[in-house]
Amino acid sequence: MSDIRITNCHTHLFTTAHVPDRYPHPLVSLIRLVPGLVGAVRWGLAAVGQEHWAGVVARLERFRATGDQALQSDVLREMLPHYPGDARFVVLPMDMAHIGHGAVQADLGMQHDELAELAADPVLGPRIIPFATVYPDAPDSVAEARRAIETLGFRGLKIYPRLGFAPDHPVLMEELYPLLLERNVPVISHCARGGVAGRGLPMALADAYTDPRAVLPVLERFPELRLCLAHFGGQVDWRSYIEQGIDPLDAGARERNWLAAILDLLRSGEWPGLWTDISYTLFHFDDFAPFLRVFMGEKRVRERVLFGSDYYMIKREKLSERAISFRLRNTLGEDWFRQIAETNPGIWLGERPGGTG
Ligand SMILES: [Zn+2]
User: Fold this and answer.
1) In which domain, by residue range, is 106 found?
2) Residue 334, SS3?
3) SS3 call for 41
4) What pLDDT score was predicted for residue 216?
5) Is 30 exposed, middle or buried (0-12, 13-18, 19+ CB in 10 A)?
6) What is the distance in A from the centroid of ligand 1 to the CA of 275?
7) CA of 310 to the centre of ligand 1 (A)
8) CA nearest 339: which of 303, 300, 286, 285?
9) Is residue 126 part of a domain?
C-alpha cells in the first residue's frame, strides 16, 4: 500500500435529530414511535420467502440505525474503520427545518456547534473538515451559515438546491459566495435528480434548480470560486447515458443528460472553477467504474474529479464503504486514485495551489 492520504470530499454525520419528524412521509413518525416496526416487517418478508425485499429492508434498517445515533461523533466512529488511519472527511450538514416536512429536534445552529466541537476534539478533530450549510430564504439560516464560516472557521459551504432555491439565489450571490472567496474556501452543490426535495416543490422546478448549467451564472460572476457539482450528475443520468445513450441528432440531448452536461462543461476549459465528485453514484460500481476510468483519460476531467462516498447514505446499497474504495483504487490505479483522493481535494479545499488557474 502506498502513502496516499485520502480526503473523502463528501460525507454526512447528521442524525435523526436534524431530520424533520415527518420526512420523507408522515408515516415516519410512526416508525420513530415504534422502534421495532421495521425489523418486524423485514422478518415478515423473510418468513414468506421475499428474500430480495427483506434484504432491501435490512439495508434501510442499517441506514436508519446509523442516523439514529445520538451524536455526529458516533456516526463518524462508524465510518473511520473503513479508511486508513490518516484519512480525512469533508462533513456536509443539512438544514431541513424549512422544507415543509415538520420540525427538527436540533436546529442548524446546534448542528453546526456540535460539528465545531467535534472539529476541536484532539483525536477526532484532525480527521474532519466541517462545512456550513444554508437555506437562503430563511434569514436565521443565513446568519447561522455566516457564523459557521466566520466565527467557527468552517471550511466551505454545502448547498442543496432541491430543497427549493436556485444556486444563484441573491443571498448566495451577494453575501455568501463573496465570503467564501474572501476565505478561500469552496462550495459544493447537490447535483443528482434524486435526494431530498422541499415538500410541494414541483419535480421540474427541483430539477431546474439542480441542473448542472444552473451554476453557470455563479461561475460567470465568480470565476475564482471553486464549485463542486456533487454526484457527477447522479445515478439516473449515468444509467440513461449507459443504457439509452445520447442521440447525436438531438441538439439538446447532451445538455439534458447531466453526466454529459458536466463532462462537456469540464472539457470546454471555460469553467476552471467547476469540479465534480463521484459520491453515491460510483457506488453502483460494476456498472459505472469503467466509464469513470475512460472519462478520466482526459486531463481536464481527471483534474476536476473529487473522491467522495456520501457516507452514510450508501448504507442503503450492498457494497460497504471500504469495498468500494478498494475496488475504485484497483480500477483507477494508484496514480489516478491519488489524483482524485489526495491531489484534487487539496486544490479544491484551497490547501494547495492549482485552483482556477
Ligand atoms: Zn450527500
Assistant:
1) 7-21+72-348
2) helix
3) helix
4) 98
5) exposed
6) 15
7) 5
8) 303
9) yes
Q: Are 7 and 87 within 8 A, CB to CB?
A: yes
Q: Cell digits for 100?
A: 415543509
All residue ranges of the chain with pLDDT < 70 are 1-2, 21-38, 41-43, 45-49, 51-67, 316, 355-357
CA of 314 to the centre of ligand 1 (A): 9
Amino acid at 53: W
Cα(285) to centroid(ligand 1), Å: 17
What is the domain count for the chain?
Answer: 1
And the C-alpha cell for 6?
485520502
33 touches 85 (CB < 8 A): no
Q: What is the pLDDT of residue 28?
A: 58
Query: Does residue 249 form part of some domain?
Result: yes
- The three three-digit cell numbers of residue 105, written as one number: 429536534
Residue count of the chain, please give it: 357
Buried (b) or exposed (e) across 131-152, using 16+ Cβ within 10 A? bbbbbbeeeebbebbebbbeeb
Task: Please give the distance, rounded to the nearest whole angstrom, from the Cα atom of residue 218 to the centre of ligand 1.
Answer: 21
- Domain CATH number, residue 117: 3.20.20.140
Exposed, middle or buried by CB within 10 Å (0-12, 13-18, 19+), for 309? buried
Q: Which three cell numbers stand for residue 144?
A: 447561522
Ligand 1 centroid–CA 10 distance in Å is: 6
Residue 154 identity: F
pTM to 2 decimals? 0.88
The answer to the question of residue 39 being in a domain is: no
CB count, 10 Å around CB of 24?
12
Concatenated DSSP letters of 160-171: -GGGT--TT-HH
pLDDT at residue 357 in the model: 46
Rounded Cα–Cα distance for residues 152 and 343 (Å): 26
Q: Is 279 inside a domain boundary?
A: yes
C-alpha cell at 69: 445515533
